[in-house]
Amino acid sequence: MTVHTHGVSASTDIAVANALEAIRLVGYAVIPSVLDERFVAEITASMHRAHARIVAEVGHERLERAGEMGVLRAMMRYDATFFRLLEQPEVLALVDATVGEHAILHLQNGFILPSHSPEATPRVFQNVFHRDFPRYLNGYVASVNVMVAIDPFTADNGATLVVPGSHRQPDRPETAYMERSAIPVTCPAGSLVAFDSTLWHAAGQNTSGAERLAINHQFTRSWIKQQIDYVRTLGDETMLGLPPRTQQILGWYTRVVTSLDEYYQPQERRLYRSGQG
Ligand SMILES: O=C(O)CCC(=O)C(=O)O
Description:
Elements: H1 10-26, E1 28-31, H2 37-58, H3 60-65, E2 71-73, H4 89-99, E3 104-113, E4 143-149, E5 161-162, H5 175-181, E6 183-184, E7 192-196, E8 201-202, E9 212-220, H6 230-234, H7 236-240, H8 244-249, H9 260-263
Antiparallel strand pairs: 1-7, 2-3, 3-9, 4-7, 4-9, 5-6, 5-8
Helix pairs in contact: 1-4
The site of 2-oxoglutaric acid has 9 residues, from β3 and β8.
């Protein structure tokens, strides 16, 4: 397979090509230590700041009612550092080769996974086996995940559990089978954990005594609705200041028109670019 990683090293090309083959065969792959220590430290600080802003804006009560454990949505609204994750050549190469060059970001969610004793770990969507894209399409890849490990992923801090090969199954595997055969995806900080979004997976139990930070990305074909409309969330002014590829991946060229005036625009000003499927 030819992989275009836009001028990065041959070893990166090989790492991405190997990851693509593993995703196809077993449903997931790790590309270790893609982000350097400094960037990881910046992101850690940005995640804690974004967390405080989200709690202030949404309120503890509504966040608790949502039944989530430390999920941070739309972090790009609060801190531009998170846009840089969408510029990583390895991330873009994985996206291009799986869901195509018109693919868009379905979500970018931060996780500050708290530590609990095994008995006290709440059962929530995140830590129950699930598929992020719950439709089996006979091998057609409509969605791919790229999770960034901000802390190292270890067996006792909640490394994501994956059920190898389960992306090839139309039906839900037996729970007992998933519990027996799931593998914790351990990796150093700054690694990418990429997986087919139809792979059955769950957050592991974090009993380490410290939080485990990660950022999950899900990318889909351009005609699938986003979880959050990033273009409207961020606003035109922010969108227009971003690099063209970031604009595209956030959905700038897949906006839905709201009037006939917007519909009858010349090609270059159209809100939904033609030829995107
Ligand atoms: O935190 C993780 O390791 C996985 C979380 C997850 O699966 C999800 O939120 O969909």
